[in-house]
Amino acid sequence: MRNGRLVLFALLLLSGRLSAQSRPVFGNPTNSLEVQIRLANAGDPLDLARVELFKAEMPLPATYANSRGEVKWVNLSDGSYTVRVVLPGYLPGEESTELMGGATRHMIVMLHPDPDAVRGASVSSEDPLVSARFLAAPEKARKELVAAREARGRGDCKSAIGHAKKAAEVAPDFALAYVEKGMCQLTLAQLDDARQSFDRAIEHDPKFLYGYIGVSNVEAERQRWKEAVDALAQANKVQPDRAEPFYQLAQLQMKTGHLDKAELAAKTAMTKDYSRLPDLPFLLARVYVLEGKKEEAIKCLQEISDKNPQNDIGNRARRSLNALGVSIDGKGSLK
User: Fold this and answer.
1) What are the angstrom distances between the C-alpha of 113 and each of 32, 38, 62, 84, 308?
2) 9, 84, 109, 128: which one has the fewest Cβ atoms less than 10 Å from its Cβ?
3) What angle (nearest 5°) sits at the alpha carbon of residue 48, between those of residues 31 and 98?
4) Is 90 helix (H, G, I), strand (E, B) or coil?
5) Who contacts 59 (Cβ-Cβ below 8 Å, separation ≥6)?
């Protein structure tokens, strides 16, 4: 890369113990940044909290907080950094800091409930079918699943696995219980058990995307890349209109350094239903930047800006354009 740095990014979407790292290609490690996310109402679990890191307005690959609301970056170069946190049902939170001279900075980002958010019984806000799956289960199984998610939110994976097992005992075909158990087992690096749990979820609900995504994450953790990709291919086969399998594939290809394949996967995802993936166009722009295709990245970001003239997504696109040296007028158009 032109700045002599290689960004290494590891994402385990379902593991609940996600981290991001930026490592210099040359020289010794420098600064560290530790972020703690807190909820003003001490409410929901934090496993869906998305964390974005910007260096001088240039976005670095995003990640997700673990169930305790923790994210850590190491080996960051000197400069100004901004952390932005997004969690369904809460207003976005943002904090900035300066890193210099091998410092370790600790940052707290407080999230406040969004008064306009719609809260329901859905186990996962990412899939509208999850609510139907959840409500179809017996009440006792639902209560055990909720207890499992609450335990995982506290970082108590052992208790979470116990509750998920009880939910599956009450309702043996309850795919959500197996996925929840698999997520916790993946967090504890119990890969064989996690794989078995995700396989059971698929067995009982062959169209449940998160079973396949869970399998892919297990195989990625084992560095069995072909198996990880094959699981995403199966996800696409059962849900051909959804973008998530190709989005996950793009992330996987980025992680393994296959930028051309990551670009193709991201472009394919954008031809599907990506309404649940607001980061997808930014992912494609990041791939373009890493490939050295600056003009394509600018075009992609400008389209995002034009479609979102007055919201946070558009503002983020305009910050990224500024970081690429593009001037924006007061109406959000290129000068």
Assistant:
1) 29, 11, 22, 16, 23
2) 128
3) 20
4) strand
5) 52, 53, 282, 286, 316, 319, 320, 323
Look up the pTM and report it.
0.60
What DSSP designation does 77 have?
A: P
Given a cut of 70, whether residue 104 has pLDDT beyond it is yes
Element (H, E) at 232: helix 225-238
- Spatial neighbors of 108 by CB under 8 A, at least 6 apart, are 35, 36, 37, 38, 95
User: Rounded to the nearest 5°, which phi and psi values hold at 275?
Assistant: -60, -25
Superfamily of domain 5-111: Immunoglobulins (2.60.40.10)
In angstroms, rounded to a whole number, what is the distance separating the alpha carbons of residues 273 and 276?
A: 8
Distance, CA of 296 to CA of 170 (rounded, Å): 52
How confident is the model at residue 50, as a pLDDT? 80
Which pLDDT score, from 0 to 100, does residue 42 have?
A: 57
Enumerate residues 6+ apart whose C-beta is below 8 A from 16: 47, 66, 67, 152, 157, 183, 184, 186, 187
Tens digits of per-residue pLDDT, 141-181?
989 988 988 887 777 889 999 999 999 999 999 999 999 99
